[in-house]
Amino acid sequence: MIIRPERQGDEAAIARVTEDAFRNVDYSDKTEHLIVERLRRAGALTVSLVAEDSEGIIGHIGFSPVTLTSGETGWFCLAPLSVTPERQGQGVGSRLVRDGLAVLERLNASGAVVAGDPDYYGRFGFRHVEGVNAEGIPDEYFTVLRLHGGTPSGIVGFHPGFDGDNA
């Protein structure tokens, strides 16, 4: 398995992997593949990596810029992380997260936020930070990883593509 940047022509495979990954997830509204498409169209996928094996693309991770009401810059949202169901639990997602965070490090990003399982993302250093939250996301599922600079504060704003806007 290799991890590589998304390239032209990967779009359909990424959409398929993302749809498959979230198909049986109770909390999903089944639009994650559309989020990726909207972020890509808006030029807001700062980091977009795929996991590929001899069968083709089996995973994807995206990072897009976020805003903070405190005005801090250089922060990104990890979302979505998708792995085909038959490859989940085999380390594909972990490789994508680690490699994606390494790219953010090289870009000198301040850090990343994620809404998801705190036990899973805690393995990569994500922690709940008091005073950093996002509307509609329970605090215990919203975690932060600081890469460079200080600890952020404020309410996180996501790209409009997460809400279905075509921005």
Gist?
The protein has 167 residues and is α+β, with helices and mostly antiparallel strands.
Question: What portion of residues belong to β-strands?
Answer: 25-35%
Q: Segments where pLDDT lies below 50 for 5+ residues?
A: none
Shape: globular
Name the CATH architecture.
3-Layer(aba) Sandwich
Structural class: alpha+beta
InterPro entries: Acyl_CoA_acyltransferase (IPR016181), GNAT_dom (IPR000182)
Domain N-acetyltransferase: 1-148
Protein name: Acetyltransferase
GO molecular function, one term: acyltransferase activity, transferring groups other than amino-acyl groups
Please describe what this structure looks like.
- With 167 residues, the chain is an alpha+beta fold.
- The chain has a single domain (2-163), classed as Aminopeptidase.
- It has 4 helices and 9 strands, in the order βααββββαβαβββ.
- It has helices spanning 11-22, 32-41, 92-106, 118-122, and strands at residues 2-5, 47-53, 56-65, 67-68, 75-83, 111-115, 132-133, 142-146, 154-157.
- The strands form 2 sheets. A 6-stranded mixed β-sheet has the order 1-2-3-5-6-8, with helices on both faces. Strands 4-9-7 form a 3-stranded mixed β-sheet, with no helix packed on it.
- It is globular.
